[in-house]
Design a protein that fits this description.
CATH architecture of one domain: Orthogonal Bundle
Structural class: alpha+beta
Number of helices: 7
Largest sheet: 3 strands, antiparallel
Shape: globular
CATH class of one domain: Mainly Alpha
Strand content: 5-15%
Low-confidence stretches: none
Number of strands: 3
Radius of gyration: 19 Å
Mean pLDDT: 92
Strand order of the largest sheet: 1-3-2
CATH superfamily of one domain: Winged helix-like DNA-binding domain superfamily/Winged helix DNA-binding domain
Distance between the termini: 49 Å
Order of helices and strands: HHEHHEEHHH
CATH topology of one domain: Arc Repressor Mutant, subunit A
Length: about 180
């Protein structure tokens, strides 16, 4: 399987999200973070991600006669590069977008099912805005978002931090009218 195929599956994408921030987790820990997916399914997808080079085995230890592996994300392989994105057909872009949305819906459902979840207190946001932008304004917006988000991607998990999914989605909602 290529990177695109590996990363455009909702369960595999959720495994990748769970390992971001330098986390090193066992498959059992991953299963606990994705409780709506069976352990067997999580194990199968972890195996695929490891075989495909998206995950590495960080270490192994014997636990009650079995070997327990802890996995880490290979950041350099955990995304689709610009050349791959350019080569995708519209149908493949749709497929990748659908997988990302399916993962997001599943993650949000899991959040809502957790005891004590409080979307207002947790500052959950899912607003959509329609903005009119020139090409230059769009490039500036993307740059500002990258400037704001990039430093936070290096944050490691701590007791004070909660893991949030941030999913900026940006596309032209309608075709530009030809000049009159």
């Amino acid at each position: 399987m290529d990177s695109l195929e590996l990363l455009t599956h909702p369960v595999r994408l959720r495994v990748v999200h769970a390992l971001r921030g330098g986390r090193i987790l066992t498959t059992g820990q991953l299963s606990a973070l994705i409780p709506d997916v069976s352990k067997a399914t999580v194990y199968r997808h972890v195996d695929l991600l490891t075989s495909g080079g998206i995950l590495d085995v960080a270490d192994e230890q014997r636990v009650r006669g079995a070997v327990e592996r802890r996995y880490r994300l290979r950041q350099e392989h955990a995304g689709i590069d610009a050349d791959t994105a350019r080569a995708l057909t519209p149908r493949q872009h749709e497929w990748a977008f659908a997988a990302a949305m399916a993962a997001l819906v599943a993650e949000f459902g899991g959040y809502l099912e957790r005891e004590g979840s409080d979307p207002v207190d947790d500052l959950v946001g899912y607003r959509q805005h329609a903005v009119w932008l020139s090409r230059e304004e769009l490039v500036a917006l993307i740059g500002a978002l990258q400037t704001a988000i990039a430093p936070l991607l290096a944050n490691r998990p701590t007791r004070e931090r909660s893991r949030y999914l941030l999913s900026p989605i940006l596309f032209p909602a309608e075709q530009q009218d030809p000049p009159r």
